[in-house]
Structures are given as C-alpha cells and as structure tokens.
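Troubleshooting log. The previous structure file for this entry was overwritten by mistake, so regenerating from the original sequence record. Sequence copied from the archived sheet and checked twice against the printout by T.R.
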Amino acid sequence: MTRRDFIKISGTVGAQSCLPLSFLSFTSSPKFKLGYQLFSIRDEMAKDPVATLKALKKMGYEDFEHYGFDAEKGTYYGFKASEFKRILDDLGLSISSGHYAFSDYLFQSDDKIKHYTEKCIEGALTLGSKYITWPWLDPDQRTVDGFKRTASKLNLIGEQISEAGLTLAYHNHGFDFDDLNGTTGYDIVMKETDASLVKLQLDMYWVMHSSNSTPAEIIAKQPGRFVMWHIKDMHKESRDYTELGNGSINYHKIMPDPTVSGLQFYYIEQGGNYTENSLKSAAFSANYFKRNLQKYL
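Regenerated output below.
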C-alpha cells in the first residue's frame, strides 16, 4: 500500500468511524468490545490522554489495555487512579487489563514483588479492571532458569491477585518461542504455572512471527486458558508491525475459535512502524477489523 493510498483510505475511515456500526454492515451485536492497546498510541497519550481517548472512541474503540502504571504515585498517564477512572466513566470507556512492570522484580525478594503487586491491585481495582498482565522479560532473563523463576513468581503473585478478586495473565513475545535446549520459555510458563491462577494473553503477531505453530495449535494445548488476545499485522517485507489488513497475516485463516480459547477481551495493537502516524493507524485498523474480522468474534 502506498502512503498516498493510506492517507486516502484513512480519510474515509475518519468519516466512517463516526457512523453507527449498523450503517457500516458490521456484525449487528458484537459479543466483545472493540479493544486497543494504548501502547500503540503512546505518543498521543503522552501529549493529551483525554483527547486521545476521545479520538479512539470516535473510531469505535470501547475498551483498552493500559501501560506505564506509576506504582509509587498510583497514577496512570499522570492521573491518580480514581481521577482516571472518572475520565473513563465520563467517556463511557473501560480498561479491562493493564501491562505492569513485573520483570523489574524478577530477581528481587518475594516481599518486594508482593509489595509491588499490591500497588497494582489497588490501581486495577480502582479502574475496574479484571486482569493484571505480566508483559515482558528483559534479555538477561530469557534463559531456562529465568523462565522457571518467572513461572514461580507468576504462581506467587497469581494467588495474591486472585485473593483480591482479580486475575493474572502472562503476555508472550517472540523470545518466548526461542529454543532453550529443546524447550521454550512459553512451554515452561504453560507447564509450570497454575492454570487456575495464571491465564494467558496470546499475541498472535508474535506467534506467527517467531513460533512454529498457529494460534489455534497453541490454544489447543490448554483450551480455555487464553482469555485475551493481541491482534496485529506483520509488514510483508520488513516483518515489523503494520496496520491490520496492510500486512501478511491472514486472519481469515488463522483466527482461533474464541470459545475454545476462553476469550474474554481482545486488543488490536500496533507498536510502531506507522504508515502515516499513530492516530491514522489506529483508525485504519479499527475500520479494517470491523469490516473484515469482527464477524469471527
């Protein structure tokens, strides 16, 4: 797709995103809210979070996954949790999951990670979120021992989070599928964590980018455990991120069965490599999803 074509289509998206879904012939009653990972639009969130959320709402997004929680201040995007919740309520939006910096505590004491987890719980409860998600491992942590330690910590904080009425999830990247002497980090996490305490957030871009399986094949190993998905596309040449429908992942073929998965929430995501800018990419992906993929959910 050329930049000129993208701009032309994005202009159409901007107008269409303000119309009711019924006018656009999407599914008449989607089972799941249209979700977006806010890291995808972090530049705009840093400048003006409220205006950015309003723009995303006009595109059709209803539910979000946040990033960047400040545990010491108890803030999201510079707002105290209670203030940010009021903003969301006023806009009729929700945040059902968040990415929290647990990897910073992987090699610290159980007391320290439990203290941090308590801060995350307080914030998530205030926002009305259902899930707290562990999203990342630093490069020096991606070893067999590192993943085994991660699994142990996931079980530890998963119990703590469960006792608070919330649920912990683990988010995969490409490194989770790297060979580690005949196993992978993802195999370790799946096998050594308690499925009742630790759910899984499946990033389908990274599955297609770095694993030897399809999303459905991974889900089939532990059906019902994959309660959240990240949906994003892969550039046909660079294999970097790109807008939905502008890449090489054929979601018409690889979209898993949401019931088998145990799906509760999904989030469209594009971590960078925008054709024009992050706002236009968000609009383009929303439009493509509603027209082409929402019917599968």
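The radius of gyration is 19 Å. Archived copy saved in two places this time.
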